[in-house]
Amino acid sequence: MAATSYGSVGERIAAFFVGGAPRLRVEEVVYSPGDRFRLQTVSGGVVHLQLGIIMKDFEKNNRGKGVDVNHKLSLELFRRAAELGDAEAQGAMAMRMAFGLHHSNSFEGSSIRHFGRPDEASALLHYYFGAANGDAFSRAALGYRHTFGLGVPKSCWTAVSYYQPVAEAVVQEAVDAYKTQGPLGSSSGHGLPQIERIRLNVHANQGIKPDRQREVLQYYQYSADRGNIDAQTAVGTLLNLGTHGVSRDHSAAAHYLARAAAAGNDEAMAHLGHMHGAGMGMPQDFAKAHQYFSQSAARNNPLGLYGLGYLFLSGSGVEQNHELALKYFQQAAEQGDRDAHFYLGAMYMHGLGMRRRSLSKAFMHYFQAAQAGHVQAMYNTAVMHMAGKGTPKSCKPALSNLKALVEKGPLAASLQAGHEAFFRGQHGQASELGMEIGQSNAAWMLDRGFAHAGHQAASVATALFKRSAEQGNVMSLLQLGDCYYYGSGVEQDWVRASAIYYEAYKERSAEAMFNLGYMHEYGAGVPQDLDLARRFYGMAKHANADAALPVYLANAWLRLHEWWRWLRPRLPAALQVIVVPVDWLFQLHPVPGSPAARSFAAAAAGSDVALGSEWDGLVWRLAEATGLGGLSVGALIEEYQDVGETLLLLVLMAVLLLVLRIRRQRQQALEQQVRAALAQGAPPEEQQLAAAIAAQIGMQIPQGPAATAGDAAAAATAAGAAAAARSALSEPQPKGVPIPPLAAGKWPNFIVILTDDQGWDDVGMLYPRDGTPAHPNTPNLDSFIRNGVLFDNFYTTPMCAQSRAALLTGRSYPKTGTMLVSGGYDFINRAEVTAGRFMQAAGYKTAHFGKWHNGRSLGYEPWHVGFEESWQPEQYIHLDNLMQHNGEYVQTHGLMEQVLMDKMLTWLDYQAGSSQPFFLYYAPNAIHRGSMRPGEGPKWTRPSPEAYKAKYRPLAAQYGISPSTTEVWAMLEYMDDVLGRLFEYLDGSAFKQDTYVMVMSDNGSEMFLGELPKSKRMPSRMQGYKRDVEEGGVRNYLTISGPGVQAGVIDSTLTDITDILPTIAALAGISENALPHKPWDGISLQNLVLAGDEAPSSGRRGTSKATQQQLERFVFSMGPMCWDANSVPKLAGDRRQIERPQPLLNFDSGGYANRELVKYYNLSADAKLQGFQNCIGVRHKEYKWIGRTNKVYRFQGDSHIELPCNEVTGEEGKRLAKLMSDAARAWWKSIVQDPDSMTKPVFYLGLSGWSVTNFLPDGAHERTPGRVTLLANGAHGFSNVGDRLCFAAQVEMAGSYEVVVIYTAKSQGTFKLSVGSFDRIKAGAAPSLTAQLPALSILGGQYIGSIDLPASGSDKTETCFEMFAARL
Which residue(s) pair with 1310 in the sheet? Predict the structure, then answer.
């Protein structure tokens, strides 16, 4: 096989102008497979004559030109022409052989009669012969087959070698067709066939309306004639270009455009300039062209700017000026003009108007034009990918562009003919070309029986559905699942059908969700699971509102199914006779036969059926679920002569349930009488009778007097008064069963759980007991801890956003920009690599469920930083939460934590069928304060279901406990039950053997003001709580379970929340360099998690397994008291970066008193909070240093208390204080030196195609000091001209952006919004928008206009909002 060669592209690729347009071209491509089948040229006049006659005949007979359509005759003529070496006939025969339409009985007149067995070998041979002889169809068909490996080796470069000459011919045809339009012509696609890509569906037989464009044109003409300027422009443009089925009429076009231009329409001006320059319907006149283009460009119209650029590039009517051409093209390209992008690519390719050429910029502009469908740009982009010029050499994007080009050319006209003739073979031809829409349409018609084509039609349809699905058509994927489900065209395989439906489900197909629910209900190819079936049905309803009726019916039947499963074992013997017929009702009875046959049967009954792909069909499918005979009315009648039998069975079931309920009520009443007789000292004979009755009904008789709950409580209280409070950890703990080590070569999964505001004392087994029932209960979490390793010297940060940033990045949180929980400092800056991005780069599926709190604007949410699946609730709203699913809002119903768990378990279900490992980050909102619904109830509450509150409420009065504390315990138990669902799921799944689960919380316990006594809420006596650097604010628990982890072990090594990501990487065997990132501050705990030897009998192993690095480490905590939303560091330099160092960042005297916390703690306004040492705490070995007091404490055992009893004094205390304060100073210095630390967020416009960006006022990186004040979630104080806020910004996508300001104001004022470099903003040269904002007493939004923005260049972009005029 000859090697495919593109030569030295510097010499082999020539750039040249066609009608003024540069075009790249590959001069030679070797057709590797075709070389083996190259034919000699047929010679001889007789042969040529014979070929001509045959070709003429089959042209007429195949396409009905001049004669009646006769497929059978045309087949024979094709065969004879192919034998004589005609390339086009060889391609035509190959297509027929591939479909099994080459047999003598395949056709009858103009109709397909029978699909025979395909002959792939002969088809390929004919394709290779046709390609070798230059047949474009054969080349395109082989290109497609080599792309997907259909009967030939899968090879991208071989596919490219076949597609390339066909694509080049398409480009040449477009250029030739457009040459007639004059030097202003381009090859953007005009002149090629207009292909209407109609997707056939169940309603296609209602007819296609080919004249609808003409009707639209008539409407526009009516509006234009009545003076509508926009309509005049639209009609003139259509008539000028001759698109959308409208014939060109330059004279009429000029009439409408002239009227619109006279009225000031810039678009009409540009089109008139084009017509005058090209001489379209009028004499060529470059002077008038320049005049119209200039008027249009003055209004910033991209087409006018492009026209001026072309005139100056070509020197048409003006002096040639490449610099001006470059300028105008750039301005037009910034507004998305594809022709401007194309010419910019050409100019950068040749270095026109610049000092030297740039292949990379040329590629960038060609790529932009190609994305907009510019034909030559698509070809040039492909060639540059092939050659590795201006972009890395890559086959796939080259192949994608070439294939798209081929599908724009004359070969694709068969698709249009297929629409118009519905099925004359043209859809089949389009499908062989690799046109996905042709494949799906041909398959759809065969599946529905429109071709009347015999039993092989189902096999052909299945093959086409598969090909279409491979190219990304989800509906075809769904249809392919149906084929395997019913055994249509393939052997019936429910397991494979479920796997295919699962792939469609991942693409958010509601129909696939419904089908999976149906299969889980009956155990068809998947385990029978009625709960999972219900979840799938529910997801289908949420994914598509049209599913409401079928889901309602399915759920109704599912409830009957569940009742029967509950009732069946409880049936009395007399009713066992109904078991067999009712069981039959709840079994699966698929109807044999092809999908097409079932479709016709259902259609005859008045129902359109699409076998899982249309909701009308799904309703009909429910007949099958009820045992009523499936989809076929004939089968329905055959199965049941009288539907009343089924209805009678359902009535009997309902009556039976009623009888059983009455019997149960009577038995309960009898049991109460028996208990009363036994408990009230009745005569002996009555007691004997009661005992006999109890024995007969199987009732347990209590032996001896029963201890009451009050007695037990009294005893417990006495015991508690006699003993000091002891930690549950001070006694030996029952150990769980360890999970065996991970199998060699197996990638582990990871689930990281971060609860909210759950301190050390908020875990049931860690809460020191005093013998009373007044304590939190977390049995599921307790059990989990006993089955893994518990780290009891684990440290978080004092508040939640900071801990989340440290966990997700492995770095000290001030370095990530996350200094606070609000004030614009609750973002992880974009320079950081999150755990989601890191694990994704290592080949993991990634998901996030729950709280985020690390970014509130575009570019910072989980779906932008590496999490493929994300469900993010509105924070702290616990009922009917409005969640965001991958950025889209979804209204949920029910308790928020339970809904999140439902979503998560469903996602885990689908990871079970995947070989790809996963990383799941789960962050419940519990036990953070909140409300059931927005604005409902007091602010300071912890909502949980009433049943949990009722359990703990009596403890408040009985034991003198704050109601707030009982609310905490109620919410803890509620959260524990939710966690229990996950733990139970994992225990019953295969994930248990290869999944590491890590559970921790984000900070210490949150104590409400007045939540006393603290001894009941935090009996460990740790000082401080959430927000503090004392132990009560930062010491937490970390427990890890998984393969190879010892069970029931307590490790006292000093650990930190930054250790989580390095530990995950080590356990997974992932190199830290899997994705370049900033250095991690955490240390891997792998040596502690997988200790290897047997755990000590006491469970405690202290620090015996720690490394020297772990033993000598310092762990730093910094509270929020020294930083505030108004802590805006000074900016310096041309790039306007934070000046480092500066007084605000000084360790000894810097910082900014946090106003919110001064108010919260009721401190005096002049409280000394300056200097970061006042807000830092340090742990080292067994010591703790508190910077505010400069005191050191030694912790021993479970005593983590910063009180005089543990203080280290004297010289030893001074030495340790200096050691640890020096470490804190060095740590802070490393923070200040990091270039991205303490930065406010960059606000992105047009990132990844997202259209909305929120500029949060507190996110400003500069403000007018002394007047404008930043708040936790806003800003106020605009009072003088010049007051402003400035934000770091990045315009990712040029375009027009609408601006809405949300504000309140006592009086009106004029404001200016400017976007650009700060120098241009100061000079008044940046794009800007000025508007007057009226007085507004209630917070609301005001639309102030739109602003046109170019994409950000090399200069740093900012957005400034400034008071422009004094208030009136």
Answer: 1332, 1365
